[in-house]
Structures are given as C-alpha cells and as structure tokens.
Amino acid sequence: MTQEPGNNSKGYLQPYADVEWDSTGSPHSPDYGDIYWNPAQGVEEKRHVFLAANKLHERWVDRATSFAILELGFGFGLNCLLSAQLWQEVQTKPQGILNFISIEKHPVDLPALKKLYSALQDDGLKALASRLIDNYPVATSGTHLIWLSENICLTLILGEDVVALGEVNQEVDAIYLDGFSPGKNEQMWNRQVLSSLSTLCHAETTLSTYSVSGALRRGLTEAGFSIAKQPGYGRKREMLTAQFQAQAPRPVRANNPQKPIVIVGSGIAGLACAKSLQKRGLKVLMLEQAEQPISGASAISQLAVYPHISVRPDPFSIFSLSAFQYSLRENHANICGYRKFASNDAEVERLQRINNYFPDHFINYEQLNDQAYLTFESAAWLNVEEAYRTTLQRIELRTNTEVTGIEQSKDGWRLFGPEGSQITEAANVILATGYASLERLKPLGLNTNRGQAISIRTDKMRHSSINSSGRTLFPENKNGTRIFSATNSRESISTLPDASDTQKLASELQNRLGSPFEIVDEQVGIRCTTRDRIPVVGGLPSWQALDQYCIENRHRKVVDAFTGYENGLYVCTGFGAHGATHAPASGEFIARLICEEPTPTSWRGLLDPARFKLRDRNKQV
C-alpha cells in the first residue's frame, strides 16, 4: 500500500496533510484554506509570537531543571526548531532537558519537510532541521520520541487534538497555540481543548497565540487563564498572551545529580535506562550478579529490531511501532530489513492484511517462488555491547553483586546481598533483573523462555536481510559470522549450551541452506516474559495497597485510578524476544518518570506493573 497525502487511511497511520506551494514558496493547506507560514517573515514572526511572548530567554538563563513546552499544531516543526535553537544558546546546565511536546492531526510528509527547510539561511536552524529530517517518523498514530540533541527531545503526538492531549499527563511550562485560524479549524480551538489545556498548567504556565478571536478569549478565560492583547508582528496588529491562574506553585523537577540512581541488572533494559538518565546529567550505579555485564538474553550477539503488529490496531502494536522507530534512532542499529515468511494460508492472509495498513517503503508484501513474506524494510539487528559501549563507560558498574533483598528506608531504598549485608542505599532504584526475580517482583508472575542460538560461518550465502521462517537467520556481521536462532524451552533456565538443541538447530539450518556451514559458537539466553507478552515498565506498586484496592473495588465498573505506587522504586523487564525493539523507549519512559517529565498516558496503562492484579480483581479469591 502507498499512502498518499490526504488519504484518510484508517488504522495505524495518521493521514498526511495536503500541502500546496504558491509562487513565493509558501506552503498552503487546501483542506483548511490557510497558510502554514510566510517565508518572507515566518521565522521572525514565530520568534515574536511564541518565544518572545512566553519570555523564554529570561526564563531559561541559568535554569538548572527541565522545561516543557506544549504546542498544538506541529506543522513543519519551525516553532520546535526555533525553541531548540534558543535553548542551545541560553541553557548551559547539564541537568536541563527541553521537552518540546507537539500535537499534530495531519503531519506533513517528508518531501514537503525537506522542501521547506532547503530554503533556510540560518546555519543553526539548518543543523536542527537536518536532525529532524533524519529522524522524522513514519506517521503511525501515537507518541514519537525524537532527540534533536543531547538535551532537547521532541515528543511528537500524532492524532486528534482532544485524544492526543490525553497523552500528556504532566504539567507544562509554556503553551503554543499554532493551529490554522479558529474560523477555519474550529475543532482545535474549542472549549473542550482549552479546558484540557488547563489541567496541564501550573501557576507559572504561560500561553501565546497569534489569534485574538472573541471565542478564544472567552474560552481561555473560562479555562482559568488571565489574558492580555499584545502587539502582533508585521501587518498583524494584535496577538494574545495568557497566564494560568493557579494557587499551586510550579513543580520542582530536579534530581540530585551527585546521588546515583541504582539499576539492578546490566542487560539491554538496564542499559537503556542508564542511557536516558545520563542524558539528564544523572549518575548511575549498576549492579550485576554475573562476572561481566550484558549477560542473559542480551548476550546473544545479534538481536532483531522489528515491530510487533497485530492484524487489528491495538495499543501494544501502536507502542511497538513507536518503540521500533525510537530504537532505530537511538542505537545505530544495523539496518538490513526483516523478512517474515508465511507458514500457511492463514498466515498469508494475516501478512497481507498487515501490509495493507502501511506504505511500501515501510512494510511490503512479496512472493518469491511460491513463498509469501512480509518485508519490514527498515528493520535491523543489534549487538547490545556495541550499541551501549559508551553508556557502560560512563556508569559505575559492580559485577559479581547479587541483590537478594530490598527494604524501604528514610532516604529511599536499601539493597542487600545474599548474606544480608547492605550493598548500597539510593533514593531511586530500577529493577531491570530479567528473569532473576526478586521477592518484590514475584506478584508479577514473570515467566522464562530459554533460547539457544548458534553462530555460524558460511561462504554460500549472500542475503543481507534477517529471514524468519519459524527460526531466524541473520545477515553476516563484521566478524564474518551470523546467528541462527532460537530454540524455546519454558522448563529450563540453564545458561549452558545443550547438545541436543545445537543438533536441532544445525539440522534445520542444513535443510534450509542445502550447503555446508561451520558452527563457530553456541549462545544461550533466558528471556523474561509476561502472561500478556507485554513488558512491565513503570513504578512498582505497593502490593499490600494494590490488594486492598482490588478488594474494595471488586465488581465495580467505575473506580478511581489506583495510585499506591512505591516512591522511587521502578521495574523494567519482561521483554521476551523483543528487548532490542522495546527496551530503549522503555528506558526513556522510566527516566521521564523519575525526573517527573511528561510521559505518554497510553504507555503508562499498557506497561503498568499493576495491570495484572487490576484485571483480576473481579475473580473469586
């Protein structure tokens, strides 16, 4: 399928905007009958209406904490780039992150983005624009996390304004209203949207927009804003600024950079958390019970990076598509394509239905010699040690350190070893322990799936993609070997190679290749899985409080949200065979929780460690 701009494709994708260009190079929207911006004065106008009106320069000088901007109407992303440029010029504190959150119903496509930014004259903006272009996502619905620099992250939410606003669950410091004019795009400026904005504000939240319509002024006033007209830019006589009227002060979003955050486990989940925390200038102490880091399933030398996609769009698939694209952006994975072969007629139909949702450059259904397969064009393989080498160099790592107990203390959490001696104490602890379940994780009901792979060398193969047909054959790596994986066993957690598994893999590969090969190495990983095959990522609940909540709310259809999570204790595990795809975004999610930055609401519910008990609350005890 090829998705054309304006095609109202229902499913995983947001429809691209129709963009027309006039003789001056100005982009227009024929659907809304309005202009995106005027190249003759667009940059300076946006600086005036949004950056200057929100007094960003004054607010950012010597700021030592993160700052969050919420924008309605991403368009071509110029407001984001201008804000990022100013942040780079003004902000010097290593802990400060600029979180620019933008909502867009109809994203422009990549060719239009490239066309507009090709005319930029400002070298600083051109560099940021190049970064945006290189990381611009396929327009799958939901939240996309895009780092424009080490301390600037764009959170691009694609979807309807009201629904997308529900994805933001942390207070923001400034708001840009930059949609098409209210007379041509009433849905973005209605009372429901403005009321939703008020729930994301604190006493120092400011707002600005070019519109001074009466309906907008009344709506903002009703939503709790104090409004004021200001001089507009150029021929625009007036614009609007607003300050939210609230009693609560601005929340303090600061972690002590001198006190390390403790991560238990040095597989891809723990390393992903560490990398995101390091971006915020935070120290990390990583505890690993093995002799070397990156043991367990993460030690397999080639891991596949491709999304989980269901025939019908569901929350996990939407998360997986966003996480997949984030992993490609973050880890410098080896892009090679992934070919999923159909094993029967039902599988052929399933692959065809999935293919119909997406453009050919992203996913493509093909047939070769009566074999049907789906190609994920941008899928990749990842070597965890190579991808996280820099992260490992920047943390304090203690190997041969087994954590067997965790107790709450006045200042956070104490961690103990097998003999009962205290290992360390920290305000924030992340349990990224894989299948090595601690007592506090037992209520999660985590499962294991032992997988064995073989590393082979052969001169008879030339294909450069990952091929999956029951088992998965990887392309050649720089050492001239490739992985063939993997067996599955839920009965064993032995990390030693099994001769019968090796023989099984060798026999299957021989039948597939029909040519000789050399087995160079046997590799074993124990995957940690959950009962719904979705990772558990987030704050760990107080199990006692959760049990009580479930008893009190048994058989109730409408209940207040559960809030009894342990302060400073987090979990990041249960990735199964998709750790290379889902762990990087999950690590960023954990870092945002710790630093009290905006996180996607849908991810919280989907990955919530409390979800199993919450679902089971109506069952008989």
Q: How is this structure best described in words?
A:
Helix 9 packs across helix 16. The protein folds into 3 domains: 207 residues, Vaccinia Virus protein VP39 (Rossmann fold, 3-Layer(aba) Sandwich); 234 residues, FAD/NAD(P)-binding domain (3-Layer(bba) Sandwich), CATH 3.50.50.60; 75 residues, no CATH class. Helix content is 28%, strand content 26%. The protein is globular. The strands form 6 sheets. The protein has an 8-stranded mixed sheet with strand order 6-7-5-4-8-9-11-10, sandwiched between helices. It has 621 residues and is α/β, with parallel strands linked by helices. The N terminus is likely disordered.
